[in-house]
Amino acid sequence: MDVLIVDDSAAIRKILQRVLAQTNLSLGKVFEAGDGQEALNTLQANRVDLVLSDINMPIMDGLQFLAALKAKSEYASVPVVMITTEGSQAKVMEAVNLGASGYVKKPFTADHIQEKLRAVLPR
Amino acid sequence: MGGPFHELLVDEILKTTMDVCRTMLDCHVEAGTPRWEEGETGSTNGVAAMIGLAGKYSGNGIVVCSPEAACTLAGRLLTTRFENVNEEVLDALGEIANMIVGNIKTNLWSRLGEMGLSTPTIIHGRDFTTHTTGKHPWTVVPFHLEGQIFHVQMILTATPLLPASI
Lengths: 123, 166
Description:
The complex is a heterodimer of chains A (123) and B (166). In chain A, 43% of the residues lie in helices and 17% in strands.
């Protein structure tokens, strides 16, 4: 399974890489992007099976990225989990309406992420 | 005298900072005595990670600490050891500030409405102060972690309404 992590914080990308490595997923390549535009550029040349994305990012935020991603037919069914400090009901609903499969609020534990991945990934 | 939300901000800073430290840094921090500081905070040598808030209410939240405390906080977040402040330490401090201020914003939503959150700005240097225009003071809460001190400080005021013609 190839994964794309989108977050403007290198620290969070590193922590998520570590959490992914602790799961029992059969992990392939893990790509990283610092904002939504960089993520879209990455996906032009690479196909992934799961996306983990922050919301508050410079250049293109996570909700704009999610809308652009879900507009692509090849990514309509790829799970996208938002991992963000934006915990208001309005933001959660906006992400769900745009096609997010899951939502994890920062701060998070490895268990939070793993539990969410079990819920959104096909068995 | 404290700002209009001093007590509320103290409660939120205490709750959220302890939650972020427990969950992401796997540690317990001890809070010191909260205070307020008029207009300009004391001179700092080290790191300040700043997040802006804007909406019907606007302001800033900042995590301020010495270089040693910045290395300790970043080291706890990334489970590694840092001897000096580098890009990784600055980025980690920005993310810690983002989690603290972002969660305070979310917790205050029912009372203060929706506020936008800026991406972090991180300042690293010697002998700098943080200054805000206007009459309201900063709410400042010190925290102790492994012999180091870091401060979480916030200011939040009603945003002046623009004339309808603008």
